[in-house]
Structures are given as structure tokens and as C-alpha cells.
């Protein structure tokens, strides 16, 4: 049941993941897997096209679903729309949980990489969606701050540290503590 309602785009176990990952990043994944439902851990996954970003995120959520956690996979475009919906509008009749009530959420393709050359969604633009185009949406920020979230971002230049720091700064602006933000570069 937990896997069915997670709406994964495909079923995938971490044991099947065969992309390259540094040991320090494996530790960050293990830490995220060990987080309790209310820890508010955030995992930023960066990498170029075909580096396994989505597969890694789905694998993590699948493992958590097997452990009877409510997980939700959602594309960035759909998530942007969810930020603007009222509570009654978010939960559709066939859903048991949504982004507000799931224990773990994965937001995929926030900023796709190749063949897209330009950054489609900047951290500043995403924050404006979170705030529903108002100065600040405290409810959305509080929900995101206290939820365990995997943020899947593309990056044509995966070693660009300054670029990654702008996404981390956005999370800090939401109110997430720095020690609860981990970055994985594939």
C-alpha cells in the first residue's frame, strides 16, 4: 500500500542503483534514510543528465516506503501548483496523503539539466512559488522546514559550488537549519 500511494514513476530499490557515488555521498544518503519522520532533513541531489539523480531519489523513497513510511514522488511542475492550492484542494478523492501529510517527499526535475541550457527555475523563483507570490507564506515554509525532502536538481556543470550554494541558501531562507541540509553531487 505505501508503495502504491507514493506514486513512484517506476519501482526501484537502492540495491539496484549502479551509478557512481562517492563514499561521503553514500553516508549522506544513509543519514537521510535514518531520519525520523519529523526530523526535517533535506537532501539536494545535483548532477548532469543521466547521472542517476531521479533513480537515487526514487530508490531512497522506495526503501522508506517498504519501512511503512508515507512517501510521495512529485514532479516540480506539479509541486509548484500544489503550493497555491488550499488544503481541501490538495487532497484528491483517491489519495490517502499529499505533500503536506506525507512523511517524505521527493520533488523531481526542479531544474532539469541538458539539453536545457538555461536555468529555468532559480532558487529565488522557487521561493516565490513556495511563498505563493506573497512576501512570505509561513504555512508552506513551516511545512517544508519540518518535512524530509529530496530536492532533485539538474546542473550542466556539476562541480559548480557557487550554484549549489544558492539552492542551499534558499533552504536556509525558509528556516531550515544548516546541519539538516545535505548535498549529493552525482
Explain what the structure shows.
By secondary structure, this protein is an alpha/beta fold. The protein has helices at 2-5, 23-33, 53-66, 76-83, 87-90, 123-130, 138-145, 161-174, and strands spanning 42-46, 71-75, 104-111, 148-153, 181-185. The protein has a single domain (2-7, 20-185), classed as P-loop containing nucleotide triphosphate hydrolases (Rossmann fold), CATH 3.40.50. 38% of the residues lie in helices and 16% in strands. It has a 5-stranded parallel sheet, with helices on both faces. The protein is globular, with a radius of gyration of 15 Å. The model has no long low-confidence stretch (mean pLDDT 86).
Number of helices: 8
Number of strands: 5
Summarize the biggest pleated sheet. Answer: 5 strands, parallel
Shape: globular
**CATH fold name:** Rossmann fold
Tell me what portion of residues adopts beta-strand conformation. Answer: 15-25%
- The SSE string, one letter per element, is HHEHEHHEHHEHE
Helix-strand category: alpha/beta
CATH class: Alpha Beta
Fraction of residues in helix? 25-40%
How many domain modules?
A: 1
Specify the CATH homologous superfamily: P-loop containing nucleotide triphosphate hydrolases
Mind telling me which CATH architecture this is? 3-Layer(aba) Sandwich
Could you tell me how far the N terminus lies from the C terminus, measured between alpha carbons in angstroms? 31 Å
Query: What gyration radius follows from the Cα positions, in whole Å?
Result: 15 Å
Taking pLDDT < 50 over at least 5 consecutive residues as the criterion, the unreliable ranges are none
Which strand order does the major sheet show?
2-3-4-1-5
List the quaternary state of the chains. Answer: single chain
Amino acid at each position: 500500500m505505501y508503495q502504491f500511494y507514493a506514486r513512484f514513476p517506476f519501482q526501484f530499490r537502492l540495491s539496484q542503483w549502479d551509478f557512481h557515488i562517492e563514499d561521503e555521498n553514500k553516508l549522506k544518503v544513509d543519514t537521510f534514510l535514518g531520519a525520523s519522520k519529523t526530523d526535517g532533513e533535506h537532501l539536494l541531489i545535483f548532477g548532469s543528465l543521466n547521472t542517476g539523480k531521479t533513480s537515487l531519489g526514487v530508490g531512497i523513497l522506495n526503501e522508506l516506503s517498504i519501512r511503512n513510511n508515507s512517501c510521495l514522488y512529485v514532479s516540480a511542475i506539479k509541486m509548484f501548483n500544489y503550493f497555491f492550492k488550499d488544503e481541501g484542494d490538495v487532497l484528491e478523492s483517491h489519495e490517502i496523503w499529499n505533500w503536506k501529510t506525507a512523511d517524505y517527499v521527493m520533488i523531481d526535475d526542479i531544474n532539469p539539466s541538458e539539453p536545457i541550457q538555461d536555468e529555468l527555475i532559480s532558487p529565488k523563483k522557487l521561493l516565490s512559488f513556495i511563498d505563493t507570490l506573497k512576501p512570505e507564506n509561513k504555512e508552506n515554509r513551516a511545512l517544508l522546514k519540518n518535512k524530509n525532502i529530496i530536492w532533485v536538481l539538474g546542473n550542466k556543470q556539476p562541480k559548480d559550488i557557487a550554484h549549489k550554494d544558492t539552492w542551499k541558501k534558499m533552504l536556509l531562507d525558509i528556516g531550515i537549519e544548516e546541519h539538516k541540509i545535505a548535498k549529493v553531487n552525482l
